Design the sequence.
């Protein structure tokens, strides 16, 4: 926003995303391994057993919901209630952290997290050449850094054991867009008629731009 890339309305998404997660983390601090280090008697505040969650959920197991996340899932009935992932695993869903998977580039094993930069990152499958061209065009026209990577069995980023495809469920011509804060902002499971137009619309929505 300070550099003019995003509209000031983007700042409004911070509360929508972080308040439910912060409230959830605060309540989870009443239980779990950290609580055992505190010298508290039986009158201390406690969390109902049915609300207790493993530490995974406080660290990465939540979903953001705001206008800075593009998803077809319905908006939560209670905007203050945290949205959690299903099971202790990440699947590349919009609003969640990018899954860590070991992949291979130039013969060396790296994490998919190592591919993330300070701008947007667009992950595609082995048939993702049209997405790469769209990312370059949209990046230039909007002045927004977008770095595309194709991950597959025969691409320059190799999905060695198929784990990336298994976790994300992405097909060869699908795409997954990651925000600069490592959150999945949007995904599509098929190549649209105009990848450039689709990607531009998504980026503009994420940045609250008309």
Sequence:
């Amino acid at each position: 926003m300070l550099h003019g890339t995003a509209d000031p309305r983007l700042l409004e998404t911070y509360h929508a995303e972080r308040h439910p997660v912060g409230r959830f983390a605060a309540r989870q601090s009443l239980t779990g391994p950290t609580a055992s280090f505190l010298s508290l008697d039986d009158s201390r505040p406690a969390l109902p057993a049915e609300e207790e969650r493993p530490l995974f959920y406080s660290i990465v197991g939540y979903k953001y919901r705001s206008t800075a996340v593009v998803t077809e899932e319905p908006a939560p009935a209670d905007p203050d209630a945290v949205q959690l992932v299903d099971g202790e695993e990440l699947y590349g869903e919009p609003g969640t952290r990018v899954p860590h998977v070991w992949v291979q580039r130039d013969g060396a094993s790296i994490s998919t997290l190592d591919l993330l930069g300070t701008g947007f990152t667009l992950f595609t499958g082995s048939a993702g050449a049209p997405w790469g061209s769209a990312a370059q065009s949209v990046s230039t026209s909007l002045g927004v850094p977008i770095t595309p990577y194709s991950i597959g069995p025969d691409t320059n980023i190799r999905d060695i054991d198929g784990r990336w495809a298994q976790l994300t469920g992405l097909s060869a011509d699908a795409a997954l867009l990651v925000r600069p804060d490592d959150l999945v902002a949007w995904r599509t499971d098929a190549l649209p008629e105009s990848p450039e137009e689709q990607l531009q619309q998504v980026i503009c929505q994420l940045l609250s731009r008309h």
Remarks:
- The first strand starts at residue 62 and ends at 63.
- The mean pLDDT is 91.
